[in-house]
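step 4 of 6: structure.
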Amino acid sequence: MDYKDTLLLPKTSFPMRGNLPQNEPKKYKQWDDENVYEKMKANREEASESFTFHDGPPYANGPIHIGHVLNKVIKDIIVKYHYFLGKKVYFTAGWDCHGLPIEHQVEKKVGGAKKKEMAKSKFRGLCREHALKFIEIQKQGFKNVGVIADFNQPYLTLEKKFEANIYRELCRIASKGLLVERSKPVHWSWAAKTALAEAEIEYKDKESHSIYVAFKLQDRDESIIIWTTTPWTLPANQGIVLSEKIEYISTTDGFIVARELFDKLKKDGIVKGDIGETILAEKLEKTKAINPLNGRDSLIMLDDFVSIEDGTGAVHNAPGHGEDDYRICLSYDVQVIVPVDDRGCYDEDINKYNLFKDTEKYLGRNVLTCNEDVLEDLGEALISDNKFTHSYPHCWRTKKPIIFRATKQFFIALDKPYAEDGSTLREKIIGNLDNVKFYPQTGKNRLLSMLERRPDWCISRQREWGVPIAFFRVKATKELILDEKVLNYVAMIFDMHGADAWYDMEIKELLYPGCSHKPDQLEKVNDILDVWFDSGSTWSAVLESREYDAGNFPADLYLEGSDQHRGWFQSSLLVSSASREIAPYKNVITHGFTMDAKGRKMSKSEGNVIDPDKISKEFGSEVLRLWVAMSDYQNDQRISNEIVKQIAEQYRKLRNTFRFLLANTNDLEKISSFDDMKTFDKWFLSLSAQTFKEVSLAFDNYDFAKGLNKINNFLVNDLSGLYLDVTKDRLYCDEKNSLNRLSSMSAMSIITKSMIYLLAPILTYTMDEILANASSTIKENNNDIFDCKHFKLKEIESELSTKDIIEARSKFSELVDVMKKDKSIKSTLELDLKIEPDLFKSIDKEDKEDLFLISNLVKESEEKEINTFEVNGSKFTIYKASGSKCPRCWKFNASKEDSLCERCEKVINV
RNA sequence: GGGAAUAUAGCUCAGCUGGUUAGAGUGCACCCCUGAUAAGGGUGAGGUCCUAGGUUCAAGUCCUAGUAUUCCCA
């Protein structure tokens, strides 16, 4: 007779294989259709705690890559983690929509010439379309990896009210006196016709001239030699800077250079004579040299910034083209001349100031193409000309080398007292960081050291796709109008019409009715705001404005890549500290970057780019999410096919263990009370509780990799390897409602519930699927995973020693392995065991037999002793089993061949 | 050129304030089971703890210098 049908074998509708690539999209769509995000909020309407996550806006340009996925999935996991803890959570997705990259792409599409003819608002409309298109693409990409956020009312920096709010933030800062206007040399991209922020500059190798030029002194028959790498700035030369700290000498062939550099200069053939008299820099101060290019005066000035690392110890000064030059000229009251227009071409100023002998030759030409001509025109004054390659700033977008060019710009002043307590913005932001917790902690110092050193924030750009710095100026005086009523009215217009109104409407329409300013005497400022100002004010436009149901200000958490120390973390802190005097966030988490298998960055040219969409389609988004969670994301992570395969294996193990748990608890109707459970099961619950506590602790610190490693360990060793193996006999062979069986099934249900809760933030889809296929003891009244809430397994003491159990089993299986290998036994059920003295007194005979998967625990045996081992003072003796094999439970407990053992006999006859 | 982070088994990660023979999972090899079966179990082989110095009775852990990779800045 086949007894298989009399067994209670595991049964479940939960499939072994997830078919994730096919099934996930359906579920994700369902969640989307049901608006699960809103449901989550409704579920926590009564929650006492809330958690505001403020999403850092990705740039709405191009499809998402693995870095976007990492970023959003970590956010999603953390938000869900707080949700399943029982908090009301907020996660409004956002996009950064303005800025040069989009403007540049649209410009490429329509063509530069066509763009010029186009009305500004028309062009801005095209930029808007471009951004909106990619927002949809990116949105879908995020949904495809199971991210749940407010995607229905996301915040977009291009929205009318959003633009109005950014503008209001600017006005608030202006009203505090922090906005200053200065003409200052800035990094200028002539190719993009805009000032560039530090963040928009890339350093690349460039070949430049290295030239030595002699400037003849007016009062002496000697020449000072200067060194420069930018010949094109020579026409704008206004002086030569020496340092009091450097000793200068004249040479017998009539040149003046630093004494320390003489040997080197002589070796290079720059000077040919010998050292003559010593010259004091002070003596030359305020005397004049002659610019050999145009015969203009060049004033000798002194400053300590001059170094003797290279050059001659005398520095060519063009105040329109260098920051130090500018500063020094200001102190000597020397005029700043900038004969270069926004396209990087020499303009009419070269005529006005007679900067060249033949100005016609240069007018309208890009300065970088003029170097050779300048050198030629220098004639004999050019002492040496070499080329060399050095690291030089380039425009991040156009990849063209940039120039320094003095322009009028708006700055946010960092060192000007403004706060109620009289502190400066720099002091304020540094102080505000005291109240912010950083993960990892090193992030705080990283941000601090930047804040201590950073210059004033240049927030103006001479571009079109952005929020206008919508201020009026008095034409005659260039004075800014910061009249509150004027600003408020403009903001109100932006609320209704968006910032395009600044371009579409006339000045008289933009002024409030009854305003005393005369429209025809005013002009508009045409600059737009740095996009970092946009994103820096999202806390205001999103959290404070009440336009979105996005949570509270300040936010509980900001989370971005570590590059945002320079970017968003800083711009947000600056804007919020300037206008509200507090930090916009309470916690900041940073993540690293995703590298290839070798830890190198991905790039198209290297061909090592991993497409997240491909992984979702081949393995499933859950595998991708598990990869994120198992990575040490606060550092750089690696991804490769091999790594993904490995993660897929971990997923498989996890899934199958859950499947077995579901299958084994399938017919349980009610979880037994603790008092009705056996010591052995309670022991395992205590072990589980200990593990889950450690996991929760790791998760509390957002260390998901550590927590998952613990879960994985538990799953493989304790659950799958021990508990589930040991309890099989009672589950399959015992009578349906035996105490043994109910007790173990109850423990399993509790453990399953705990693990579902722990893993729900990470493997939301899978946990939902598990729940749908679970028995009512696990599922309870929950319709889906989002109905679940924190289930914490309480900690209990157990008199059983986990250490002894593990050690005894390990020693036993070591001996068994030998027996199996020499074919003396096939199964441990062929064995009996004697434990003397009894190491496991607290559990009954059956539990001890099952613990070792043997047939009988004996006090003595007539069979031959096979082997012994010792654990913690107890001696374990292994015997061949004395009974016959029961055809139902396979234990060697039957009294004779082919007959059932006592237990099975009983079960069958019930 | 400057600031910062990381470096432990083929892979993903542990290793607390310095203290036995450096751990786990996975992968790999071999074996068992076929009542978790496109599953499950067991055993085993894998390490110059990036390199070189130093402190110490004792260094994966502390110090110094360097290398590689990454991020940020000039």
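step 5 of 6: annotate
 - Chain A has 32 helices and 31 strands.
 - The longest strand of chain A covers residues 201-217.
step 6 of 6: archive
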